[in-house]
Design a protein that fits this description.
Layout: H1 11-16, H2 21-33, H3 35-46, E1 57-60, E2 65-68, E3 73-74, H4 76-80, H5 85-88, E4 92-97, E5 104-108, H6 109-125, E6 133-137, H7 142-154, E7 157-160, H8 167-177, E8 181-185, E9 188-190, E10 193-195, H9 197-205, E11 213-217, E12 231-233, H10 234-239, E13 250-251, E14 255-261, E15 269-274, H11 275-289, E16 297-300, H12 307-319, E17 323-327, H13 338-346, E18 350-353, H14 355-362, H15 367-370, E19 379-383, H16 389-399, E20 406-409, E21 420-421, E22 436-437, E23 443-446, E24 457-464, E25 473-474, H17 478-485, E26 492-501, E27 507-512, E28 516-519, E29 522-525, H18 526-533, E30 539-549, E31 553-562, H19 570-584, E32 592-595, H20 609-616, H21 633-640
Parallel strand pairs: 4-17, 6-7, 6-8, 7-14, 8-11, 11-12, 16-17, 16-18, 18-19, 19-20, 31-32
Antiparallel strand pairs: 1-2, 3-13, 4-5, 9-10, 14-15, 15-25, 21-22, 23-24, 24-26, 26-27, 28-29, 30-31
Helix pairs in contact: 2-3, 6-7, 8-9, 11-12, 14-16, 18-19
This protein binds 5'-O-[(S)-butoxy(hydroxy)phosphoryl]adenosine.
5'-O-[(S)-butoxy(hydroxy)phosphoryl]adenosine binds next to helix 12, strand 20, strand 26 and strand 27.
Organism: Thalassotalea mangrovi
Domain AMP-binding enzyme C-terminal: 528-606
GO molecular function: acetate-CoA ligase activity; AMP binding; ATP binding; metal ion binding
């Protein structure tokens, strides 16, 4: 396989694209020189408003105050459904592909409308009003989309919790947002395994006295525990519901949803997005980043529990009247050709997935891909972590047959939509680089002291100025919003990533520079994993770092110090890993756990994570300055017993 550093825009991509290279440059220039004029024009193009805004944007990073289109009125579900009905009532909105092959069906825009309207009425009948928070803990079935849009229709604020999260994680999220209604399913099915969603919710709501309704969708029909005081049978309630619900008129700055994400300290943050700016940014990026054309079949493999699922399975595509595929399963069930079979079966044109999935499938050989007909593919995308050039080339050559551009999209839960990528018809690709800023996005690279660097450089990635899809606050904690993103480098939004910029202005994301890990594209806070470990009575202290992992990108490496007199053994090793899985979900489970009689600390008691990272990576030549350590002997002991050599 020949590894080329640059791939120019192909004629095919140019012919399909909305924008030429010249258009991109011109539009980008306009977007940063006259942003309010630019965004007003886009807002009028992409979104149907009941009433216009008073002011396009009002942003003050020093106060962490961000507003877009305040005073304007709209409803997001109207924009995703009602306005399409005159032309698209019978067009497929959602293609569902179940966990088991053969379980698939289409949902038209008319049917989507009926289901969402009914669901909105069901929520209303349970007393849900504008501004109330609703927790959604569901498998990847079409009802998760109905639930989100039903909330949007009545102005309720949804908080989707990933179906792989544990009881503890659901509980903390329900309590943090004071959700009083939970929407779930009896069970989930993923990769042939049953996920006891209702049981997990029951255990969580036992400690959530304000939850008055749990709406249960039937997925497997299993006999689940039933609490008649709060449990609501979804199918029965829907059968009685009216199929029209007047959309609630929302201000552009009214909340649309909360989505929790991990940070470097403390408990997960409730990232809050609002109606107007978010739906504009999600739909506009979906159209241009994927060059999405009417009638195409679009598939993003994310889960609704992540921002990618929010913006690029449901909100962006549906606002554009697209056909979006919802996949319940995993890439390797019943076997590792599942993705390629689904692409062939549904003639998928645009395919958007994560580097970790690409690496896992790449390792299984080309045969599984080649035996499927992938000729429908036009464009490929990746998201979640930097893609290594080997995986990029495999994706490009074996999956895309050298014929599909790849968009490597850099963004975050906080950003609402893609900020950096190469637009397929406008800019050539460099494997491993995310690329160029989207319209209205002004990235900058700072040195450690906060000085902006010019030209080719490497440092901290920040953004100057706002964009409509930006988060507005941490739910219930405006101070934390300010401190996390705006206090370190005043006047900038600090993303937490390191990056370099090359001579052509392309951005290459290096990875998190805070104590956040990226494991299989999932964002994990080391502090949360450490807190889970020290819950065990035998553990006195824990420190968690990442180490390079072939498939997952990063793996979780935990150093654990036991209470005096305790002994580490295989039994305790798995007990501790299971404890983390129970507290935080299985993907937070440490891959490696090293018993550490003591941890390297500064004289002021701060754990020297830099050294722990080096030991975990087996990079011993360059341990850096250890002179400030309280007990340099601790390091020798850790090196001697390291788990990767
Ligand atoms: C972090 C955000 C945005 C949806 C998925 C993750 C990393 C994301 C890329 C990319 C390199 C990437 C960053 C970022 N990341 N996309 N294309 N190249 N790194 O959302 O959980 O909020 O995580 O994911 O480190 O800060 P998230």
């Amino acid at each position: 396989m020949e590894l080329k550093p640059f791939y120019p825009v192909s004629d095919k991509a140019k012919a399909h694209s909305y924008l030429s290279e010249h258009d991109y440059k011109q539009m980008y220039q306009q977007s940063i020189e006259r942003p309010d004029e630019f965004w007003a024009e886009q807002a009028n193009t992409f979104i149907d408003w009941y009433q216009p805004w008073e002011q396009v944007s009002k942003v003050d990073y020093h106060q962490a105050q961000i507003q877009w289109f305040a005073g304007a009125k709209l409803n997001v579900s109207y924009n995703c459904i009602d306005r399409h009905l005159p032309e698209r009532a019978s067009q497929t909105a959602i293609i569902f592909e179940g966990d088991e092959p053969g379980n698939s069906h289409h949902v038209s825009y008319q049917e989507l409308s009926d289901q969402v309207n009914k669901f909105a009425n069901v929520l209303k009948s349970r007393g849900v009003k504008k501004g109330d928070r609703v927790c959604i803990y569901m498998p990847m079935i079409v009802e998760v989309g109905y639930a989100m849009l039903a909330c949007a229709r009545i102005g309720a604020v949804h908080s989707v919790v990933f179906g792989g999260f544990s009881t503890e994680s659901i509980k903390t999220r329900i309590l943090d947002a004071d959700c009083q209604v939970v929407i779930t399913a009896d069970q989930g099915m993923r990769g042939g395994k049953v996920i006891p969603l209702k049981d997990n919710v029951d255990a969580a709501v036992a400690d959530c006295p304000n939850v008055h309704s749990v709406i249960v969708v039937e997925r497997t029909g299993a006999d689940v525990n039933w609490n008649p005081a709060i449990d609501v049978h979804y199918e029965q309630a829907m059968a009685q519901a009216d199929s029209f619900c007047e959309p609630e008129i929302m201000d552009a700055e009214d909340p649309l949803f909360i989505l929790y994400t991990s940070g470097s300290t403390g408990k997960p943050k409730g990232v809050l997005h609002t109606c107007g700016g978010y739906i504009l940014y999600a739909s506009m990026t979906h159209k241009y980043v994927f060059d999405y054309r009417d009638g195409e079949i679009y598939w993003c493999t994310a889960d609704a529990g992540w921002i990618t699922g929010h913006s690029y399975i449901f909100y962006g595509p549906l606002a554009n009247g697209a056909t979006t595929l919802v996949f319940e399963g995993v890439p390797t069930y019943p076997d590792a050709s599942r993705f390629w079979q689904v692409i062939e079966e549904h003639k998928v044109n645009v395919f958007y997935t994560a580097p970790t999935a690409i690496r896992a499938l790449m390792g299984l050989g080309d045969e599984l891909v080649n035996k499927q007909d992938l000729s429908s593919l036009r464009l490929l995308g990746t998201v979640g972590e930097p893609i290594n050039p080997e995986a990029w080339h495999w994706y490009y050559e074996v999956v895309g047959k050298n014929n599909c551009p790849i968009v490597d999209t850099w963004w975050q839960t906080e950003t609402g939509g893609v900020l950096i990528t190469t637009l397929p018809g406008s800019s050539g690709m460099k494997p491993g680089a995310a690329g160029l800023p989207f319209f209205g996005i002004k990235p900058a690279i700072l040195d450690a002291d906060g000085n902006e660097l010019e030209g080719e450089c490497r440092g901290r990635l920040v953004l100057t100025g706002s964009w409509p899809g930006q988060m507005r606050t941490v739910y219930g904690d405006q101070q934390r919003f300010y401190e996390t993103y705006f206090s370190q480098y005043p006047g900038y939004y600090f993303a937490g990533d390191g990056a370099k910029r090359d001579k052509d202005g392309y951005y290459w994301i290096i990875g998190r520079i805070d104590d956040v890990l990226n494991v299989s594209g999932h964002r994990l806070g080391t502090a949360e994993i450490e807190s889970a470990l020290v819950l065990h009575p035998k553990v006195s202290e824990a420190a968690v770092v990442g180490y390079p992992h072939d498939i997952k990108g990063q793996g979780v490496y935990a150093y654990v110090t036991l209470m005096k007199g305790e002994q580490g053994d295989a039994g305790l090793d798995s007990e501790l890993k299971d404890l983390v899985a129970k507290e935080l979900g299985s993907f937070s489970k440490p891959d490696l756990l090293q018993w550490s009689p003591s941890l390297p600390k500064t004289r002021s008691g701060k754990i020297m994570r830099r050294i722990l990272r080096k030991i975990a990576e087996n990079e011993l030549d360059n341990l850096g300055d250890t002179s400030t350590l309280a007990d340099p002997g601790a390091v020798d002991e850790l090196i001697e017993n390291r788990l990767i050599r």
